Amino acid sequence: MALTLKHLFRKKVTTQFPEKRLETSRRIRGQQFVWRSDLCTGCATCAKSCPHGIIHIETSKNGGNKYLVDKIEFDIGRCMFCGLCVEACPYNALYMGQSYEQGRYSRILLWADKETVMSPDNKMSAYGHPEMEADMPEQTLLVYGQISKDTVGKDD
Amino acid sequence: MNHWYYFVDLFAKVRTTFVEWLQSVNLPSSLIIFIDSIIGITLLILIVFPVVMLFTWMERRFIARFQLRPGPNRCGPLGLFYPIADGIKLLTKEFIMPAKGDKLIHWIAPVILFFSALMIFAVFPIGKGEMGAFSDLNIGILYIVAIGSLAVIGIFMAGWGSNNKYSLIGAMRGVAQLISYEVPMVLAILGVVLIVGSLQMSELVSKQTVPFILLQPLGFLIYFIGAMTELNRSPMDMIEADSEIVAGYFTEYSGMKFAMFYIGEYINTLAVAIIATTLFLSGWKGPFLPVWLWFVVKVLAVFMFILWTRATLIRLRIDQVMAFSWKFLLPLALINVFITAAEVLAWQEWMSGWESFPWPFIFVNFAIAGALIFLWSKLFLNLGGGRIEIGPIRAGYSQGYGADPQAPIS
Amino acid sequence: MELKTQPFVLNIGPSHPSTHGVFRMRVVLDGEVIVDLEPMFGYLHRGIEKLAEGRTYTQNIPFTDRFDYVTSMLNNLAYVQAVEKLAGIKVPERAEYLRVIMAEMMRIAKHLLAIGFFTSDLGAMMTPLLYMWREREKLVDLFEMVCGQRLTYNYMRIGGVSGDIPPEFLPALKKFLKEMPGFVDEYDQLLATNEILLARTKGIGVLPADLAINCSCSGPMLRASGVKWDIRKADPYLVYDRFNFDIPIGTVGDVYDRYRVRIEEIRQSVRILEQAIEQLPQGDICAKVPNLLRPPKGETYARIESQTGELGFYLVSDGSIAPYRWRVRSPELLNLTVLREISRGWKIADLMAIFSSIDIALGEVDR
Description:
- The complex is a heterotrimer.
- Chain A is an alpha+beta fold.
- Chain A has a single domain, classed as 2-Layer Sandwich (Alpha-Beta Plaits), CATH 3.30.70.3270.
- Chain A is built from 4 helices and 5 strands.
- Chain B is mainly α.
- Chain B has helices at 2-8, 10-24, 29-66, 82-91, 103-119, 140-148, 150-160, 165-196, 201-206, 212-215, 217-230, 256-280, 291-312, 318-351, 359-379.
- The longest helix of chain B has 38 residues, at 29-66.
- Chain B has one domain (86-385).
- Chain B has 15 helices and no strands.
- By secondary structure, chain C is of the alpha+beta class.
- Chain C has a 3-stranded antiparallel β-sheet.
- Chain C is 47% helix and 13% strand.
- The chains are: A alpha+beta, B mainly alpha, C alpha+beta.
- The interface between A and C is medium-sized, with 33 and 36 residues.
């Protein structure tokens, strides 16, 4: 009983979401995909490595070595965000996003089509791309007592 | 000086002033009594309901602070509108009636629980003197004990009328637990009554020159544990144990009927806190602050202690609860009554009443309480071994291992 | 005059506040005493073993996450070890140490959760649970730092691990390990001297040692009954033979002993972690493995000591890119089969205590 009394006077460890947020890990496997159309050759290795087969790619010949990618779509509704596609891409053209709030009102809206994954608003995460890690902000860690973005960088 | 005195004893003064005004207007005296009662009821309801709503809010926020989190804080400043939001939600829910349940009993059960809890408030002394309580019966404590036993019927009816085995288990446990904890509780109250010599609530408070918790430590402990059990609060909340029998006797209730159970439980909590304050913590007495403020502070302190135990302790099993009551609390309560009676007589013989010099009385009582609790728990109490067999004991059950292989599995 | 009573059947149904998932029990009660019990599971069966036959070995790794979803990395580890054993792949040393570090951290996390839910099922209104959860949050933050997810990690790969630990990982882990023994001591002292907990758990649900061995229980249930069997010592895998640690065993095999064994295991895991951090070498984190791995034809069985016992994978390969057959020896399902024997004659409240001391997660029971 004295233990709970001691805890009454300690600081809270919860974050008041959505006013305050935590800084996510640099390698977060978020619920978005970010696709670099300049690096992609349309080889569809990512589609072959997905356990569920959610990546749909349609290409057409462009003359020369690269395929022209007409349609690249991800079914976020069935994806399990395992990251195997990102690891499989031999040209480093696919990234995972940083967002964890991709809820939509119906399943059809959960298909990410070519414009969504190419859009420059998407923030790329460093999963599978270790060269990006140096520029990204550090994660908030509870073990240092950090419960919001403002306390990153300060030790407990 | 006059204004300060008025402010100090608000409840009693408001009623006295109003009654005197009515008498000066020369109304017939029966009408005066009638209007006075209406005023008293209104004042009571105005006090009780907001406090109960405050209690529900306090419970969630206070227990959440123990768990290192803020608690509900979205609805209104500091989350103060949560009880209102709860009330609105429960009002607009559908009344689900189990098809094969006993309809009449299902409807009446929450009503009985709720009103028996409310009726206790008639005798509480919130202010000094005769007009301090709504109706200062001279059998105040007896009235409280009698009304408090009505809750048992309410719980049993709720469990039976739901046509649900979970509810029935909860109701059976509830009846067993509640009636077995009333006896030690009443005996603890009896100790206080022996010292004061009267059952009237206002007398009990005005005679406490020394708070009775010092004179009756054992009595306070027994009363408190008994009262927490009567409220079905942790650690004895197995009749609504929501990890075994999903909500126990009120599983099948929804909407306003559930709200009546819920609020009835908190009204009971408030009643218990007020009784504990009145009997043991010397009610509204205190040095600097106004009368009603001391009362509020003491009641809140008792309530916070109840919340603290709820947040901390795990619940007991039903046969352990019964063993605790019959083998531990009841003998101690009886011994307490004997010792108190002996002390009252002795002090009257030798020192003309205990009010003049209570301190040896206090030391002796504390020493006896400590020794008894220690001795009894070592010698006679075995919480884990307390078993009550509700049914025939078949071969092989006696130690709890194995089972009868010929027992039919239906 | 004897009192005639009649047993009645109570269905502790699939959705219940304190079965850890969708688990159903048909209990025959006599008053409050349990006469018979029939567990019915299968509500979470997803057919993972059949789905796995159509996917390559690497694509199957995220499926293994979903067995015991609280400790995903241990399931990954068992599967990946089975494949490596079959294909004869040698794992670099840094990867082995990283695997040990992750496995022990997962063990601490699951034991904390088990103890927390155990007290919550006994009725403590979630206060100890939230304290345990706060400590587990610290660990989950570290997992997120390494592999990007908080629940289904998908961290192990065939031949090693998927990503190296960033430089902030070790200082944070060291700080956590410094605070952890104090935390465990605090709660140990609180709950071990709590009269009510002792009264609710001592002597309840006793599992005798020979019954445990006959019913193939393993893990903390077996060790609490007094049998000294831990795969990390008896059949060492990874680099466990280089560490000094003890195996806590109980005496009686009741609920209290299982709970104490788990707390002691947390302490031993902290010990292993401290030694592993010191001995961590530099090097590769993953061996060179072809993308579409074709193991030679044959079958193998690999097992690890997961948090509830012996988690084994029986893998049959026919030389193609997908496994021919996969069979999981699920420890939680086998531990659950003794529930009927050890809970007869006790009361409903005890049934909940016994059930949470077996510590299951339905994903593994039903696969």
